[in-house]
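Limitations
The structure tokens in this dataset are predictions for the assembled complex, not deposited experimental models. Users should treat interface geometry with appropriate caution, especially where small molecules or nucleic acid strands are included. An illustrative entry is reproduced here so readers can see what is and is not provided.
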Amino acid sequence: DGGITQSPKYLFRKEGQNVTLSCEQNLNHDAMYWYRQDPGQGLRLIYYSQIVNDFQKGDIAEGYSVSREKKESFPLTVTSAQKNPTAFYLCASGLNRDGTQYFGPGTRLLVL
Amino acid sequence: DQQVKQNSPSLSVQEGRISILNCDYTNSMFDYFLWYKKYPAEGPTFLISISSIKDKNEDGRFTVFLNKSAKHLSLHIVPSQPGDSAVYFCAASGRGGGADGLTFGKGTHLIIQP
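Predicted assembly:
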């Protein structure tokens, strides 16, 4: 049963705290992506990785960090430097071919 | 600046009729265009895509048309069904290569009226 999983579904962050969002895929896709969605907005690209041990900044990378140590996993850390972290975070993966990406169910991050 | 634009925030269509969702883009480097369907608090679901070398792609009730000279694409849903009510996002790839991430429009909320 292939797919993309994200955890947790909801995450609460305190001021000054770093939090990490998990993303795992068993689709054997090379490329993985993190997007952020704000109310009434489209998705905006945070980071992406086309291959293990390599990743690139997207349009809104400031205040975020990622790692890609395994093909299946692409965790996103929201650091204390991200001043407006409240959003819906979506992870995706794809085959590096025609741009088609498949999305996980998302993580809602809220600030306490 | 917005490179992918969906100018209609919402669209209401009667069940059984045709739904037409529109999308405009500005970057002529885009080489693939995709449509996603999204329900609240869920991830987007891939619907259909089209390569920039084609002008039409069809999959069941869904057809996407691409007009490169006008930098415009549209998604047609025929016939519209109640389960089609959702937010539809237009997206484009190829701004720097096929795997560099998608550029999304802000979405159109499609409401199918019974």
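Some entries come with short summary sentences. For this one: The two ends of chain A are 36 Å apart (CA to CA).
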